[in-house]
Amino acid sequence: MSEDFTYSISARDGAARTGEIRTPRGNIRTPAFMPVGTAATVKAMYPEQVKALGADIVLGNTYHLMLRPAAEKVAELGGLHKFMNWKHPILTDSGGFQVMSLAKLRKLNENGVTFQSHIDGARHVLTPERSMEIQGLLGSDIQMQFDECVKLPCSEAEAERAMRLSLRWAERSRKAFGGEPGRAVFGIVQGGAVPALRLESARALAEMDFHGMAIGGLAVGEPQAVMLEMIEVVMPHMPDAKPHYLMGVGTPDDILEAVRRGVDMFDCVMPTRAGRHGLAYTRNGKVNLRNAKHASDPRPLDEASSCPAARDYSRAYLHHLVKSGEILGMMLLTWNNLSYYQDMMAGARAAIAEGRYAEYCTATKAGWEKAGG
Question: Which of 43, 87, 41 is nearest to 60 (CA)?
Answer without folding.
Answer: 41
